[in-house]
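Appendix B. Chain record.
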Amino acid sequence: MRYLYLYWFPFLILYAFPTFAIDRGEIIDTAYQYYTIQWTPDEYNTGEAEDCWYHNYYQTYGDTVNSWPAHPYCDFTANISYIGEAYAYGWWDTHSDFKDWITYYVIGAGNHACHYWNYYYETGIASPDWTTGIDCSGFVSKCWKLNRHYSTSELANYGDSIDINQVDKGDIIVKPGRHVYLVDFNTGTGSWAYHAVGVDYIDGVGYISRPYRVSYDWIPFDAVPSSDGWCARSLWQTGVEEYYIQVNSPNGGEVWYYDETHNITWNTGTLA
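Structure tokens predicted for this chain:
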């Protein structure tokens, strides 16, 4: 860890410290890029081509061991344009990588949990290497700029725990083992938020408004934290490192961040 100490005694003392507050606007800007990416699959991306080697993986019915619902097809249609990166259980491709995979390679557009587990049972490969896209925890991991794909269980313990009335832009609401989403705006009774989900009306990265009390099992029924496992987490004290200067003087102290400008009048003293 780098530290810079500037002493001006007795009138002014400057210290430079690292802080760990990620910029909330940057988180939402990243989410918006996943939400607005435009792409058009061909018949190989959708598994409709008969000579596509992963054709049968999209047609295999649901996973009977874990009881995931069946999706015996790709959720997208060839030569139709879509907006928002495709949902892919187990993946966390960046929006630019996703666009390149779809445009230049023979690869499936998204997948569900049943495809993930069917492929694993047959090949022993944990993530379907024949698909591209992103899932809910991968999406949050990318937007929070984490160094790997965190699971929903890990995200439920990452950063700081907050109450529902404290949720702000860039924070998450998560239920371990179920779902996590990124809040853009807290309305008090619900939120506008970015979700990466595999449901009919989104099936990818979407931006939706939902009250906190609704009938969907991937949205919290009550205030967070709730009795059924939903909780809210924030990066307010955790995340990307930046620098600030702690200024102490006989008149008190304040914090100056690296992107601020201040005028200082220097008097006699010793600089060490």
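Further analysis of this model is presented in Appendix C.
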